[in-house]
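Hi all, long-time lurker, first post. I run a small reading group and we've been trying to get comfortable going from sequence to structure in the token notation. Rather than ask abstract questions, I figured I'd post a concrete chain and ask someone more experienced to write out its structure so we can walk through it together at our next meeting. Sequence below, copied exactly:
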Amino acid sequence: MPETSKFNWPAPTGPNWRRSAPERLLDNPYFAVDRYAAVAPTGLEATYWVQNFKNLAVGVIPLHPDGTITLVGQWRFPADRYSWELPEGGVPAGEAALDGAKRELKEETGLLAEQWRHILSMQLSNASSDELGHVFLATGLSAAETDPDPTEFLTPVRAPFGAALAAVLSGEILDAMTVAGVLRLHHMAVTGALAPELASAVLATVVG
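-- Answer (accepted) --
Happy to help. Here is the structure in token form:
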């Protein structure tokens, strides 16, 4: 295995892809698909298809003082599978990520939050799309009215953080932003990045 020091990790290493101007193949309100004539870093000619998303993805961890978090359950069409997830949604161009996160939290769970903290950014499928996601931690929660999208049938649940973590680790929860967000919150709790009382509440729900 090559020594890391030889590559100045984590700086980029090796040649980039070369690409033609994109050819637009599909355009709808949610994403577009472009095709490129490309040359790989190895010099091999290739055709590449990229899915370009119109919205920024946001997810929210609503953390209650007792160490529970609010999740929502829904059927996901592409996977034909029921999914327990963080409150999530899309933020259109022109809306700030935090404003979109606040809107999604209220719409899907009927919760408002006094404190907001950006805790994670991630590329959701960077081999085939440019979709970018942000996860926020929401605390100081209070109740409001839900207002889901017309196609959404959502079931909110308040679950012990440890139960959500166990579901992530067992593969029962597969949604990417939920997996990453739950693991990030656990990392924050054990490294002192959470307020001590919240960290204690979160870790008290974790078994083993």
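A couple of things your group might point at:
The mean pLDDT is 95.
Residues 4-53 form one domain.
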